[in-house]
Amino acid sequence: MAQIIGLDTASEIWTALEKIFSAASKACIMQLRFQLQTTKKGGLSMMEYLLKIKSIVANLLAIGENITEQDRILYLLAGLGAEYNSFVITVTSGHEPLSLEEIHSMLLTHENRLEQQHTIEETNLLQANITTMNIQGHNKKNQKSGQFKTQGRGNQNKQQFNHQNFGRGRGRGHYNNNGGNFGHGPGRGSFNNHSYSCGNFNKVSGGSNGKPQCQVCGKYGHIAINCYHRFDQTYQPTMNNHLAAMVATPSIVGDESWYMDTEATHHLTPNLNKLNSHTQFVGSDKVMVGNDLWHFRLGHPARKIVNKVLSACSLPPEHWTGICEPCQMAKSHRLPFTLSESRASQPFALVHSDLWGPTPVVDFPFAKPSTVQPPCRVSPTHCAIPLAAPITPISSLLPSSSNPSSELVPISNTSVSISSSEVAPIPTAQPSSSHVPSPCHPMTTRAKNGIFKPKIFLSPTETIFHPLCEPNSFKEAVKVPEWQQAMHLEFEALMSNRTWVLVSPPPNQNIIGCRWVYKLKYKPDGTVERYKARLVAKGFHQTPDFDYFETFSPVVKPTTIRVVLSLALSKNWSIRQLDVHNAFLNGDLSEQVFMTQPPGFMDPSKPNFVCKLTKALYGLKQAPRAWFTKLSSALVKWGFSVSQADTSMFVYCNNSAMLVVLVYVDDIIVTGLSSLLIEQLISSLNSCFALKDLGPFNFFLGIEVLNSGSSLYLSQAKYICDLLQRAGLSESKSMASPMAAGPVLSIADGTRLEDPTLYRSLVGALQYCTITKPDIAYTVNKLCQFMHAPTSTHLQAVKRVLRYLKGSLFYGLSFQPSSSLDLIAYTDADWASCPDDRRSTSGYCIYFGGNLVSWSTSKQKVVSRSSTESEYRGLANAAAELTWIQSLLKELFVPLFQPPVLYCDNLSTTYLAANPVLHSRAKHVEIDYHFVRERVLQKTLDVRFLPSEDQVVDILTKALSTQRFLHLRSKLIVLSRPVCLRGDVKKLTACLTT
């Protein structure tokens, strides 16, 4: 009854009940399909198993899920046990498909046959027509000691044959292990009705009254070639005690292949699992196959050595003629080095050295040692060659004298010298071509006190600065022409704007420093757009109430941006993007600020002077406020009004013409219905400030925007790729959800991190990802609660979020146009979810025109005594956000024809919002109660109940299972990038990861 309270008509009640209890849900279909795939026969009878499969299929058909007959047959065969393997192979390999009814009949028949075979008494054992090979009797005249064959067609009456050949069968079925061969050949005949034993080839009676017995059906009076069951592959004769038994040896041998198309009636296999049914053989006959075991036991010696050892131990010699693969691989030799024809007539004319290498670890950057062919002949004069590792030069091993170079003997012209072409892959300093003499020093003796100084090796390479790297200092940047040009452009802009004047250092004044900051600007595809150098004042040296008083940063709220984008898309407005060059330099300073001259651009005529700033400069505390004051005064002068809901939004409205300007520091978004007004505004801004028109809205604050005309797609693929690279997880495996649905993270989990810098840096970067990915908002909020004391478990949770972002790299927030611009909100709370302080987690999400424009997830500031209290606090937060968005829409001249609807899945909360009764369990939340009640009474808010199954905000308040998480993620309109806009995925991914 609780689920239909509040519904007025019978139609609404039936509709609600249908949604709740309808069996035709996606979850029910997936559950039945999973049950169909995992159903096994096990210990059920065949009839019970068939009825179980039929029942599941009937349930699927009843809810509208179509299952073809072929799918039913596949599911049916997949659940059978190992005893039905031959049946499954026979059915699946047939050329003509069988119907489901025929499969049922064949399975029941096969089950009856298996039951009959298992009920045969042990006394009625089968006899095996096998021959025991006496390996000791083998000699040189018989080299094929392990071969067994059946005679071909027409030899069914032959009574005697030797141990080399008997019973040749048709088909590919064979067994071959080190020379042994069973059942191989093109013939169709097999064992006849006679039994043989080793050393005794007397005929045994084959049947009643001397009639021949068929080897196919087992009946008397005809032979196999005249049997009409010969071509029926599914026919299996009734076995009796006169037929040969299927014998298996448990030893592991080489080939375990068992082919189903053979027509031999008697089979030998080394694998017991290949047989559907088997009985224990009682008899003295054995099958022996050579397996070269002595060769392996004795350590793979030569064949002569093995036979010599066996004969000494009175054991029969081995006659295996196969090839031992380990011997071929392990006993092979490499080709020797060619001998050098050079000879030396005097000592030390040629020096033979044995160098160790390559090293398992690269000791120096970019150096890769290479192996030198032993022996290596080195010229004593080649001692100044750059090496990949600190190796003592050969010349230091030679005797020294007062004039070493004059006593060196000339070497041969054909001697080998070490080359440096294989050592360093980057440009290094070239060695001097002049002769470097060997060191002349006295003999080094042992230290008297046993104290030795460690050897210090200087790196043979030097890392050069690449222009695509962002330099950390002026010394690094001045070496690269691109950065030099960027600094010159910045300095010229400062001078043209008259940012400062040089004065002598005033007494009792705070003189702050400055530095250059370098940044590479990238395009949306990851390529470099420009090199940007900026002179930044060291504002952290400023003193409050002395050289600055008030601060303010003109940053538009993300919710405001999403509301304006949704409105512009629904009304088909054009969106333009602008960038102001050196925006802070346009602000005027009212305080006296002194700064040192910039590095590299000091005035040589006034080296001791300082800069008295007349314009705002980046890094100053008051610079953002000075720039915003200058910009807002210009916009207000042109007829714009400053928004009261968001001071970074300016609105111009004149009759039907309307323009909206959003300011984020020096990045500006302009949208409106009239393209002519937009061009006039851009022209006016360009006359006052150094402006750059970036064209249509496509890349803003690291957010990639794809506009297809009918939809907008916001993503941060480039930003996420950079974050993954910084965390070292670019090659990691992706995850399907950002957080496991197990126990909630606690502050006591794991061990404390010694250095929490990486954790704090990654979590701070993840907060910016939530601008376009609300699906990770709860996880990031939870990880932010451990910033003060992160542990190893918390760091693993951060890496899981990054791996999820890697898997959802091209997923982002999608906006669709809508004709009805209504506000709909959802709110939820997870009561006492934090295991450390038992506070609740609340969240909400708000849709404007069907597009998600605002969401929040946060831990409540106080402990709630009941779930109703926690839900009501979350309801109040959502109502406050809705009130603010209503005021924002009012300034944008967007009327709301009906009050916003706020959904909650707690009935007690909805009762408190609708009824003017103050319950005892909610009297301590009086302020929130009166705030929501006032909005409901004024009919500016409509609080409604919805079932928990339809609650979207679950993804913002708790960790969910993967299936539930993916379902709710689609409800947040976090979708994959449109295929038509993506382009070449490989090229795009390569650009994003560079």
From TrEMBL:
Keywords: Metal-binding, Zinc, Zinc-finger. This is Retrovirus-related Pol polyprotein from transposon RE1. Residues 155-167, 422-442 have a biased composition (Low complexity). It holds the Pfam family RVT_2. Residues 135-185, 422-444 are annotated as: Disordered. Residues 214-227 form the CCHC-type domain. Residues 144-154 have a biased composition (Polar residues). PROSITE patterns: ZF_CCHC. One of its GO terms (molecular function) is nucleic acid binding. It comes from Vitis vinifera. The keyword Iron-sulfur does not apply. PANTHER family: GAG-POL-RELATED RETROTRANSPOSON, RLK (RECEPTOR-LIKE PROTEIN KINASE) 8, PUTATIVE-RELATED. The keyword Zinc applies. InterPro entries: DNA/RNA_pol_sf (IPR043502), GAG-pre-integrase_dom (IPR025724), RVT_2 (IPR013103), Znf_CCHC (IPR001878).
